[in-house]
Amino acid sequence: MKENNSLENYIVKFENVIPETIYPNFFRVCKNFDYDKAKIYGDNKKETDETVRKALAYSLSDINAKSLTDIHWRNFLSFTFQNFVNDYQNLVRSGDGPFKINDIQVLKYVNMGHYKFHTDDGPQLHRRISCIYFINDNYEGGDLEFGFLHTEKKLIIKPKKNSMVIWPSNWMYPHSVRPVTKGERYSVVAWAL
Predict the structure, then answer these.
(1) Phi, then psi, of 136 in degrees rounded to 5
(2) What are the Cα distances from residue 161, in Å, to 33, 130, 138, 145?
(3) What is the pLDDT of residue 93?
(4) Exposed, middle or buried by CB within 10 Å (0-12, 13-18, 19+), for 95?
(5) What percentage of the chain has pLDDT greater than the value 90?
(6) Are 162 and 134 in contact (CB under 8 A)?
(7) Which residues of the chain have pLDDT under 50?
(8) Neighbouring residues of 114: CB distance < 8 A, sequence distance ≥ 6
(9) Residue 2, Cβ neighbours under 10 Å: how many?
(10) For position 123, what pLDDT does the model report?
(11) CA–CA separation, 168 vs 44, rounded Å?
């Protein structure tokens, strides 16, 4: 981490998140989930609006899931992501916390799938830390873009297979997913309280 307190210093990328012996199994399972249209929060309810968010989502947050596969991957990802959130906290010297992973979703973006600028914390969602794990990178488009308020400055992150980006969920970190123009983009999003 650099010494100055630039907003970009709180956006941290980690590589080789899942061991290479496990990664192919997880990617194969992700291709077979029964996805639904991804929702957004608005006016105290969840709704679908593909002009804002065009993606498919599969929740791994239900601890009472009937599928042992879902329970296995939820526990594995919660444990793995929690370790990276702890590393993130140590790296950015955050006095807040401890934070705990509380929500995990697998996302699939297909032709022109996108998510316009938004933040992950709000009146209905009290999230503190956001994580995106990039499952694959064999597609075009789908870059993660951060825009910083009151500036023209942008930070664009090209997804790299088996890597994760972690940042604060608050209003200072609006971000978007640029449209996927070719192929399918798989990722996992998780949040910590």
Answers:
(1) -130, 170
(2) 19, 18, 8, 17
(3) 74
(4) exposed
(5) 72
(6) yes
(7) 1-2
(8) 53, 54, 55, 176, 177, 178, 179, 180
(9) 7
(10) 80
(11) 22
Give the per-residue pLDDT at 69: 87
> What pLDDT was estimated at residue 11?
96
**39: number of CA atoms within 13 Å, CB side?**
10
What's the whole-model pTM score? 0.92
Contacts of residue 31, Cβ cutoff 8 Å, sequence gap at least 6: 186
pLDDT recorded at residue 160: 97
Return the amino acid letter for 76: F
| DSSP type of residue 192 | E
Q: Tell me the C-alpha distance between 41 and 60, whole Å.
A: 18
Mean pLDDT of all residues belonging to the chain = 90
Cα(152)–Cα(180) distance, integer angstroms: 23
Taking the CA of residue 133 as centre, how many other CA atoms within 13 Å lie in the half-sphere pointing to its CB?
A: 23
Q: In terms of Cα–Cα distance, which of 155, 162, 95 is closest to 132?
A: 162
Residue environment code for 36-50, b if the CB has 16+ CB neighbours within 10 A, otherwise e:
eebeeeeeeeeeeee
